[in-house]
Design brief:
Layout lengths: L14 E4 L1 H15 L4 E4 L2 H5 L3 H11 L4 E3 L2 H9 L6 E3 L8 H6 L2 E5 L2 H14 L3 E8 L7 E2 H11 L5 E7 L11 H20 L6 E3 L3 H6 L7 E4 L24 E13 L4 E2 L5 E2 L4 E6 L16 E4 L2 E4 L9 E4 L11 E8 L2 E3 L1 H7 L4 H6 L7 E3 L1
Parallel strand pairs: 1-20, 2-10, 3-4, 4-5, 5-6, 6-7, 6-8, 8-9
Antiparallel strand pairs: 1-11, 11-14, 11-18, 12-13, 14-17, 15-16, 15-18, 18-19
The chain binds pyridoxal-5'-phosphate.
Pyridoxal-5'-phosphate (PLP) binds next to helix 9 and strand 10.
Length: 382
């Protein structure tokens, strides 16, 4: 669907635009950076960080992505239903009872628990197939993965499952984006190399060796292995996603968020605005009502704090953001008119509000900002 075809006449004029060409560009930038011998696994979990998992996966597939990474088997299943045939790694593994679900859909699970390996082995035996999995070793993230101290015993037990094939070894970095995390990241990588040695000594020959997320791929080329798992930089997030002492590549933002002025009025000085009257006008003001609220992902924490772009200029959010509506002060934007397009995230004229900028105001990261844009907001693919 083109932006032009988004029907402003019959729908609420609130939408997110996804710039497919920038997404493809960011993929090419990364393929160039890692070289042709390293495969890229775009992370398309959480609806591709809010950008639309199926549409983004289709773009990445055209650009040569060899894998996809999701959090849940359910997310992988949706990609399969949409016709994605490339291998899909379920980064969070699977839950008891989902063994047949993942085998039927050819989803590759990340494994770190022997009880789940046993269940998967039983299901594979029943289907008379060999199921490939990637094993995750915890080298310092402390979240998922076999602790390194238990890794050799884990491998010894894993070798007994005759319907499973250990086809990948992976770990995940905790602080690859942090200028103060260099020693820790290098230590994680050293532990990973030890883990790889143990894997080979136990007679496994995994095809895929991977450690790096966006930040590590950019700052620590020695961690590329033969596969890198990229989310952030593919969506054009780098100011809060990569290590700040390494020069950025030409990453371009992919998502922008738009709405329109749906009501416009002049109010006297001293007028309270919105729930609780938390903003009181100090002067006669022109106040615009926008057709977007926290149920769309415009976080309520931005009340009396955030800004939007109207006619290429910044306008402050005034009063509390409510579920469906938000007020902005357009007194200083003389020609603002009912129906004007308003940019919440993105560029308008000379000005830009990046997802990273919104994130900084919310004391979070860009990923959470776009993940929070709800299903109620139509995505328009350009
Ligand atoms: C989401 C995820 C990634 C991608 O991280 P980015 O910072 O977005 O590049 C990599 N690995 C794992 C295990 C993940 O869950």
């Amino acid at each position: 669907m083109q932006a032009k075809q988004f029907n402003h006449q019959f729908q609420r004029p609130t939408w997110a635009e996804i710039h497919r060409e920038n997404l493809a560009h960011n993929f090419r930038v990364m393929q160039e950076a890692v070289g042709s011998r390293v495969a890229i696994m775009p992370a398309v979990k959480a609806n591709a960080y809010g950008h639309g998992a199926i549409e983004c996966a289709q773009v990445f597939e055209r650009e040569g992505a060899q894998w996809f990474g999701v959090a849940l088997p359910e997310e992988a299943s949706r990609l399969r239903e949409a016709g994605i045939t490339k291998p899909i790694l379920a980064l969070g593994g699977f839950w008891e009872g989902q063994e047949e679900f993942i085998i039927e859909r050819e989803i590759t699970p990340v494994m770190f628990r022997l009880d789940l390996l046993a269940r998967l082995n039983e299901a594979a035996k029943k289907f008379k197939v060999t199921v490939a999995y990637h094993v995750k070793v915890d080298t310092g993230m402390g979240r998922l993965g076999v602790p390194f101290s238990e890794f050799d015993k884990f491998l010894e037990a894993a070798a007994l499952f005759d319907h499973l094939r250990l086809d990948g070894l992976m770990t995940h970095f905790a602080s690859a984006d942090d200028v103060e995390g260099v020693a820790f990241t290098k230590q994680q990588s050293v532990i990973f190399e030890d883990a790889l040695r143990l894997v080979r000594e136990r007679g496994f020959a995994p095809r895929w060796i991977h450690q790096a997320n966006s930040a590590a791929t950019h700052a620590y080329p020695q961690t590329h292995g033969n596969l890198v798992r990229l989310g952030g930089v593919l969506y054009g997030f780098w100011r809060d996603a990569t290590k700040r002492d390494v020069a950025p590549l030409d990453w371009r933002p992919v998502l922008s968020l738009h709405t329109r002025i749906t009501h416009l009025k002049t109010v006297a000085a001293g007028t309270p605005l919105g729930y609780g009257g938390t903003f009181i006008t100090k002067r006669e003001s022109r106040i615009a009502t926008l057709a977007i609220g926290y149920a769309d992902g415009l976080r309520r924490t931005l009340s009396n704090r955030g800004q939007v772009l109207v006619r290429g200029e910044f306008a402050p959010i005034v009063g509390r953001i409510s579920m469906d509506l938000t007020l902005v002060d357009v007194s200083d934007i003389g020609d603002a008119t009912l129906g004007d397009e308003v940019v919440i995230i993105g560029r308008q004229g000379e000005q830009e509000i990046t997802a990273e900028r919104v994130a900084a105001q919310l004391e979070t990261i860009s990923y959470e900002v776009t993940c929070s844009i709800s299903d109620r907001v139509p995505r328009v693919y350009k």
